[in-house]
Amino acid sequence: MSATEEKPAAKEQQQQQKPKVVLTADQQQIFDRISKNEVSELKLVLGQFKQSVDFVDENGMTPLQHAAYKGNKDAVQLLLDQGADVNSGKHEYNYTALHFGALSGSVDVCVKLLLAGANPNAVNSVGRTASQMAAFVANHQVVATINNFVPVKEVEHFTKSPASDPLLPVVHLEGFHKFVMQINIHPVRIALNLQKYGLFGEDLKRLKKALDEMMEREMKRRTEVNEVMAFKFHYLGYFLNEIAKCRDYFLARKDKADKEGTGAKDQKSLDFVELFAKRVLKLGKDGSLEYIEATIRECVREFPFRECTIFRQVVTQLASKENPACALEIIKAAINGQRGFQDTISFCSSCGEEKPDKKCSKCKEVQYCDRECQRLHWFMHKKVCARPVAPTAGAQGQTGGKDAKKEIDSAEISEQLQKLVAS
Ligand SMILES: [Zn+2]
Ligand SMILES: [Zn+2]
């Protein structure tokens, strides 16, 4: 008799003594729907489900953690709407929903979890945060998203302070919040984002003031000083100021032209984002981006916290003779971390965004996010954009056609290679 009593105990030990979990039929169904990515069915079950959705399965995982691990942003949203606690769970290795989201590689899932209050500093049983786990599996976009995340409350108070004259009108809270979290810190992208988030209606100097306060706050935290974010806020503020100066100059010139009735044709076709982009993207005689090189150096010099690691690291790299990296690359690496295989990633020639969708239809040699990015870069690109001769029938087309074929082939090959890497 005693032998039969011991058997189940031994079996349990084999299963690493997991606590026995008995799920109700509804709970089981919720897990099943999530595991099959059946979002509309999940919605139906949740509609009937009146208890807390923070129950766990035999692995100590909540439905939200499962949905995050699946990288299913709709399921994650449904569970959050149902009141799921984003930091809840009893996973045996202390993984949080954000850890699972980070491993799934879904930026959308991670943003939803962070907005719902997921703690990015929570560590698993091997002492790693969600961002570190994402880096481990090379989900770089996720790493950057988590590291650049700013809780809404950090910017919300600017809509109330100073009480008499708040730095940030409520209507611009959402736009400004997105602006401070931007990952791509290319100056042209900064200008385009200001436009995209409707912030050009705002006094840029006041936004810079808010960013300066955010920088100070990061450096003066009692726990977890975040000097990387402090530097980023300084950098964004510095370029806001540069863009504001460019706008003032543009408006003054336009005013003058309007009064004198000169240059009207020239002014009409130009907006100040374009003027700024021209400053940024103009190549110097040595082929470098002179404005970016000089402005970033000035920006770094003005960073007020000279004792911190990021400042010394950036200064050393900018001064290094052996390091051929341009200033923007150095800053990008300092803020978003080093990453390998840079060569295999394509970038927008205008704003530096990763993996842009479009390419120059004439030469297919350069890539852009969209027509706007292409427009802003055209003044430089038109000098080098090769137009392949269309293959035509007849004697005249013979040699031209052959050359054109060669060009198209090489473009096709590079396109294929790009697809290979992307997939
Ligand atoms: Zn772009
Ligand atoms: Zn071209």
TrEMBL record:
Residues 11-20 have a biased composition (Low complexity). PROSITE patterns: ANK_REP_REGION (PS50297), ANK_REPEAT (PS50088), ZF_MYND_1 (PS01360), ZF_MYND_2 (PS50865). GO terms for cellular component: cilium. ANK repeats lie at residues 59-91, 93-125. Residues 1-10 have a biased composition (Basic and acidic residues). PANTHER family: ANKYRIN REPEAT AND MYND DOMAIN-CONTAINING PROTEIN 2. This is Ankyrin repeat and MYND domain-containing protein 2. The gene is 6036558.
